[in-house]
Amino acid sequence: MPEPSDEHNSNLYMRLQQSQLVRANIQNISQYLNTGLSPETLDICVKLLEAGVHPQSLAESVILIRNQMAALENNGDTAH
User: Fold this and answer.
1) pLDDT tens digits for 20-45?
2) How far apart, in whole angstroms, are the C-alpha atoms of residue 28 and residue 36?
3) Is 45 exposed, middle or buried (0-12, 13-18, 19+ CB in 10 A)?
4) What HEC string does 44-55 produce?
5) How confident is the model at residue 2 (pLDDT cuts 50, 70, 90)?
6) Cα–Cα distance between 17 and 80 in angstroms, integer?
7) Range of the domain at 56
8) How many CA atoms lie within 13 A of 7 on its CB side?
9) Do 74 and 41 belong together in one domain?
10) Where is 80: in which H helix or E strand?
11) Per the annotation, which location comes first and is thus the protein's main one (predicted)?
12) Structural domains in the chain (count)
């Protein structure tokens, strides 16, 4: 198997650096907007958006899941 060229390695390194910078910026924006989304959840959302999920549909799904989780937690609190 041929050795990867220095140019190829440099390109991969630059893409990784840009990816990390973009990820950090998304996390900063999320914190600024007080979304309450974890870094892992943000990564999943970004991957879904990159895969073609409609942004409004994704936002509505996140809100629905949060509401359902809150309802489950509230029902658990009243059961004690």
Assistant:
1) 899 999 999 999 999 999 999 999 99
2) 11
3) buried
4) HHHHHHHCCCCH
5) low
6) 49
7) 37-79
8) 0
9) yes
10) none
11) cytoplasm
12) 2
Q: What mean pLDDT is predicted for residues 62-79?
A: 87
Q: Tell me which residue has tokens 């996140």.
A: 62
Same-domain check for residues 49 and 29 = no
Are residues 64 and 53 both part of a single domain? Answer: yes
Determine the residue type at 36. G
**The one-letter amino acid at 3:** E
pLDDT band at 66 (very low <50, low <70, confident <90, very high): very high
CB 71 within 8 A of CB 58: no
Task: Summarize the chain as % helix, strand, coil (round to 5).
Answer: 80, 0, 20
- Burial (CB < 10 A; 0-12, 13-18, 19+), residue 29, is exposed
